[in-house]
């Protein structure tokens, strides 16, 4: 039931050092942590979640990844500020066993620890098996919260059943988390109603801001009777981040709150940190929220120079079709490659290329710089000229075929391809229907593409490549067509330090290592370790 705002007593929990730690490896300067704690006390925040307590110690992480009692005692804690940490439910379900894991993670009772609250984050499939941890923690004097992650997409029956299960244990607050940032206010209202079918205790809400609705959703949750509200400074948190606590506190209009220390800390530390790391929503996070895709996929891609805008869009579409609600590293790899391992195709390039010299035109500046020499060579020797994507820096009458395999790039270029006269080699059988409809008037040659890391295999009507780069696909077309020789022009390379150079080099190495493939040579300058000659000496 919706309650008047004046009748609702809200508890604000700030989890900046925990959720924001995904950007800093939970490594925050001690001086900043202590200023942050003072700012939280001045702003009248009820609970501060100092960080995680991870069970595993793999790779460097800062103090807020483990948040030990020893570390907490080293801090100057303002009087009256309650402290919490978060455990991962998965850590409690490992080989060690639940109680042993709890003993290692929470070795002190609340009597000796500065902590007052422990929260446990659980996926739906973990929740009921982790609930017994509540008894263990309550016996040691802690308030206990459970965070049900990835609430969006679950049914009424699932939600109400787990809420009923929680009622059998001494849980102090049951949180639901919009982990994918896909909820709208109506969804929040519905979820609260479903939870109330099985749970009468305190509720909490943890919002993500993929679609720019975190604050609105949080205020909606409050009007629906949700007492505990999560937020972070400037919204700092995984992916697009969370509710901005400075805005939530203004909305709650706590008359005794002093925001001056918080706003000063934002200006001096968190605002520059945001510029450096780039949390906050954007079109990619919006799309991931719309399709209930875990925001870590987007966060990882945006931090990887191998992904251009079209690659991120293509990966999001792939995850939409495959199901990306939970983050999996192997799924991210698959999303980057865009294609399954098994190629599907019906066109053989032998009739076009067998015994012929093939010139592949890339997008590098070398094509423009050496245009005259390249055109002269083509007119003299008549190789089969294959342009990658919409490369059009040479006389169009000299280009015989085009090749493209990136679905988003194809979609962006479909109008251009429709105007270009050359037939288009592309993995037709693996492309989305909506893309094929956009190319329905185009002559398409269906050469299949499968992607498998570390593999380069060529078949009569398709190939398996280590990635979905168009150059690998084009090389496979030439090899499958039994070309006499492959010439490359416009494969200059990316700037030094760009990780895409590594992907390209790996591809070239795998191709050259194969037996029974045509010889390959670049005729314009290239940064890659491949055979090179000069178009001017040919």
Structural class: alpha/beta
Q: Which word captures the global form? A: elongated
What is the CATH architecture assignment of the largest domain? Alpha-Beta Barrel
By CATH reckoning, the class of the largest domain would read Alpha Beta
Rounded to an integer, what's the Rg over CA atoms? Answer: 29 Å
Number of strands: 18
Tally of DSSP helical segments: 24
Helix content: 25-40%
CATH fold descriptor of the largest domain? TIM Barrel
The CATH H-level homologous superfamily of the largest domain: Aldolase class I
Report on the biggest sheet: 8 strands, parallel, barrel
Q: Output mean pLDDT.
A: 92
Query: Which range does the strand content fall in?
Result: 15-25%
Count of structural domains: 3
In angstroms, what separates the terminal alpha carbons?
Answer: 82 Å
Low-confidence spans: pLDDT under 50, at least 5 residues? 1-8
Strand arrangement in the largest pleated sheet: 1-2-3-4-5-6-7-8
Pfam families: HMGL-like
Domain Pyruvate carboxyltransferase: 10-266
Protein name: Aldolase
Keywords: Manganese
Could you list some keywords that capture this structure?
eight-stranded parallel β-barrel, 16% strand, 3 domains, alpha/beta, 24 helices, 538 residues, seven-stranded parallel beta sheet, TIM Barrel
In short, what is this structure?
This is Aldolase. The protein is built from 24 helices and 18 strands.
Task: Give the arrangement of secondary structure elements.
Layout (H helix, E strand, L loop, with lengths): L10 E4 L1 H4 L1 H4 L5 H13 L4 E6 L16 H5 L8 E7 H4 L5 H8 L9 E8 L1 H7 L2 H7 L3 E6 L7 H11 L6 E5 L7 H12 L5 E5 L7 H10 L4 E4 L13 H8 L7 H18 L5 H8 L4 H8 L6 H14 L6 H9 L12 H4 L3 E5 L4 H4 L1 H11 L2 E5 L12 E3 L3 H13 L4 E3 L6 H6 L5 E3 L1 E4 L5 E3 L2 E4 L4 H11 L4 E5 L10 H14 L5 E4 L16
Parallel strand pairs: 1-2, 1-8, 2-3, 3-4, 4-5, 5-6, 6-7, 7-8, 9-10, 9-17, 10-11, 11-12, 12-13, 14-16, 17-18
Antiparallel strand pairs: 15-16
